[in-house]
Amino acid sequence: MTTRPQIKLGLSMRYLGYHAAAWRHPDADPAGASKLSHFIRVAQTAEAAKFDMVFLADGIGIRARDEPPGALSQSAQTAELEPLTLLSALSAVTSRIGLVSTASTTYNEPFHIARKFASLDHISGGRAGWNIVTSWSDAEARNFNREEHVEYATRYERAAEFVEVVKGLWDSWEEDALCMDKASGRFFDPAKLHALNHVGKHFRVQGPLSVKRTPQGRPILVQAGVSEVGMEIAAASAEVVYAVSHDLETGLGYYNNLKDRLEKYGRGRDELKVMPGLTIFTGHTESEAREKYDMMNALVPPQLGLSYLYGQMGDLSAYPLDGPVPEPTNPKVRSIARNLLTMARNDNLSIRDLYTITAAGFGTRVLIGTGPQVVDEMEAWVDAGAADGFNICPPILPLGLDDFVTFIMPELRRRGMFRTEYEGTTLRENLGAKMPKNRYS
Amino acid sequence: MTTRPQIKLGLSMRYLGYHAAAWRHPDADPAGASKLSHFIRVAQTAEAAKFDMVFLADGIGIRARDEPPGALSQSAQTAELEPLTLLSALSAVTSRIGLVSTASTTYNEPFHIARKFASLDHISGGRAGWNIVTSWSDAEARNFNREEHVEYATRYERAAEFVEVVKGLWDSWEEDALCMDKASGRFFDPAKLHALNHVGKHFRVQGPLSVKRTPQGRPILVQAGVSEVGMEIAAASAEVVYAVSHDLETGLGYYNNLKDRLEKYGRGRDELKVMPGLTIFTGHTESEAREKYDMMNALVPPQLGLSYLYGQMGDLSAYPLDGPVPEPTNPKVRSIARNLLTMARNDNLSIRDLYTITAAGFGTRVLIGTGPQVVDEMEAWVDAGAADGFNICPPILPLGLDDFVTFIMPELRRRGMFRTEYEGTTLRENLGAKMPKNRYS
Ligand SMILES: Cc1cc2nc3c(=O)[nH]c(=O)nc-3n(C[C@H](O)[C@H](O)[C@H](O)COP(=O)(O)O)c2cc1C
Ligand SMILES: Cc1cc2nc3c(=O)[nH]c(=O)nc-3n(C[C@H](O)[C@H](O)[C@H](O)COP(=O)(O)O)c2cc1C
């Protein structure tokens, strides 16, 4: 067996997993998403399997209005724990796995974000990552003194400046700033502590940060944007991108589009890992995998299912569930809706089919099959140059993760695609990412 | 021995302890304030000793400018971990001790604060507390798009509204809102989830909070204000007040002033615990205690010492160190400076004496003596009705905490003043505080 490039694996673990009816599974603890013990179980299982990182997506509020009526109270994706608080607790009971939390640049201040992620990086011994998002719902805006979400251009302009400020704050202390010389009484060398003095369009931030340089130099940056500005932020700064592509051609296009942008920032193509999301149903046989899938889907009531299409396509409850998907009436269709529509057209899906697929993986690509079947698909993407790894989004937790470990991991390792031991102690080392240089050094 | 009311004990553990030169002690790990392992050691020791809570003060930025020049680089109180992130990690490696973090109402948004503290309350099994402050330095303001700190009236008006919004968000979910009925597919009862729809002068916050009702109903509220509005916020909402009083008469006045305010909020005098801060130097003998004190003070260089007076009294470096303390030139003297001046006049202190006392305990009252001597003083305050307990601020950590456990705890217990076992599993139970009623129930 020749040595081949190792894939990177993230585990997305928001709520009880990505399936809309996860909480109704007979073996699921429906209250798990508010329990530390649930997440300890998940994170420790992922660490034992040598995942690069666990990841928590986030929205700052309860996103789903009750549309269509009756859907909201069927959703367990309403009560949860704040992700940074949760990951910090998990850092004390894990030792190698990366800890990636989402935080919005639209409804936060850069000083807080720089400080919290730097602290998590210290506390975890170099395992922190920040998934940079700009938020997307009016429900979030209404928790932060606004009526509606900030519009795209302003939001991303703010995001780009926000990320630069945070990176600047993370450079406040040079690596060797703390001399801590008890004899002379000098704790640090003032020439190696730097105020940022940032004055920009959206922020004025003096600094310096009150957290010293972190084990990873700075936390790992993650992005998940598909728009122009989102991809530029990723190309300029991110080490990881979580992608959503449902077919190889789209995936390949996205991958190359993103990688082509790296050169102008002086970065190599391998400095940014592209990790499409996958929601996997698996078992000993294909039919067992499909039974698990069907059983879960049967637990999705129609209102709940339709609510998954609502945000992107509006209220479809007046249309026959088993009829074709209508054209969206909203002229400003988002990229996610476009993906959904393309999929519906290509595969001739009914409304029920479409919400079933969406509700099965929260919009993530769904794979159903045995270990070798699923790994064939993963391998095809890697070999085609459409993925450097995958962000695994199990339908139910911890069950779907256990299935992944049982059925997928051995096959990945048999093919030499995934590590059997961590390469290093930090997330940066495990990702094979370079240490960032401090701008002042 | 008759049963007497039990005192409450907090352990304040910011940085490496409250003494300005803590990091220079021969046995101190000077890098400890950025290490999780240091805080685990401290929190687990405090828990073994049955402290009610550990507490982290906070400032959002490096407060000390280099005034007088040369002081800043002598201070270890410059690099630290963000307190909520740190307490969350500690929640996973402790099981009974309360976890109280400071957060500013001036430079935060109520939704974030409500969400993070509620999450910590779940994660810790009901041990979270929030120390409500309004911040105080221009250095903090400059990290949040401002030139100067927000002025007093606006800051406290915002604080009062902020606290009301946070309490409202914590009521979003009624206790029994989550039915989690797998059979019917109903996860929660929508009649028991409440949007706040707050519209006020400083905030518009729709809610509901995305965190379900917490083990303590809501986290414990702590306040440390001495001004009119600060004390009203405490009387209206807080279960604990950290006080700074240097003599029994002032302490008694403050205590009664605060307790007298409770009735108009329909609260009993025992629903708010007043806990003055104490920095203690102790040992087998009084002279051993004093040697520890003198040895630490000898490690404070004059610039560093003067920097402790700078914020309140301006630059005193032109005056003779061993001469009298001059009248402050700033006409708007803060309460802390007033306390310092009164102390200097009463005890005929030189500038060096004053900065020594201040640097020894960061302005907290300092006691030096054997266990029985220190406990005499604590008992006198409790018996006089000036304290319900104490916020212990060791000069050095973990050393000063170990001394407290060795020399003070046995004497407190001998006199029946402090518990030998926790009464309950939540901070609220251990404080003997009532469960709050949900406004919607
Ligand atoms: C895998 C993945 C995870 C995402 N996670 C979040 C999230 O947790 N919170 C959020 O507000 N947005 C999240 N997003 C949305 C993206 O940040 C982004 O807004 C969206 O992909 C649209 O991209 P664009 O705004 O660049 O067009 C996620 C997107 C993807 C693809
Ligand atoms: C024991 C104690 C701890 C405090 N901790 C903090 C703190 O961590 N952060 C902060 O900004 N202010 C802190 N303060 C300042 C108070 O919040 C308050 O601003 C100060 O006591 C002045 O009170 P006033 O503003 O009501 O006059 C603390 C005060 C005391 C007495």
What does the model show?
2 copies of one chain form a homodimer. By secondary structure, chain A is α/β, with parallel strands linked by helices. Chain A has one domain (8-431): TIM Barrel, CATH 3.20.20. Chain A is 37% helix and 12% strand. Chain A is built from 14 helices and 11 strands. Chain A has helices spanning 36-48, 83-91, 110-123, 138-141, 152-170, 228-237, 248-260, 286-297, 302-313, 335-347, 351-361, 371-384, 399-414, 427-431, and strands spanning 8-12, 53-56, 98-104, 128-133, 198-199, 204-205, 220-223, 240-243, 273-281, 365-368, 389-392. In chain A, the strands form 2 sheets. Chain A has an 8-stranded parallel beta barrel with strand order 1-2-3-4-7-8-9-11, surrounded by 8 helices. The longest helix of chain A has 19 residues, at 152-170. The mean pLDDT of chain A is 95. The interface between A and B is large, with 75 and 75 residues. One flavin mononucleotide is lined by residues 57-59, 102, 104, 133-136, 224-227, 230, 242, 244, 277, 335 of chain B.
List the helices and strands and how they pair.
The structure is a homodimer.
Chain A: E1 8-12, H1 36-48, E2 53-56, H2 83-91, E3 98-104, H3 110-123, E4 128-133, H4 138-141, H5 152-170, E5 198-199, E6 204-205, E7 220-223, H6 228-237, E8 240-243, H7 248-260, E9 273-281, H8 286-297, H9 302-313, H10 335-347, H11 351-361, E10 365-368, H12 371-384, E11 389-392, H13 399-414, H14 427-431
Parallel strand pairs in A: 1-2, 1-11, 2-3, 3-4, 4-7, 7-8, 8-9, 9-10, 9-11
Antiparallel strand pairs in A: 5-6
Helix pairs in contact in A: 2-3, 3-5, 5-6, 9-11, 12-13
The complex binds flavin mononucleotide (2 copies).
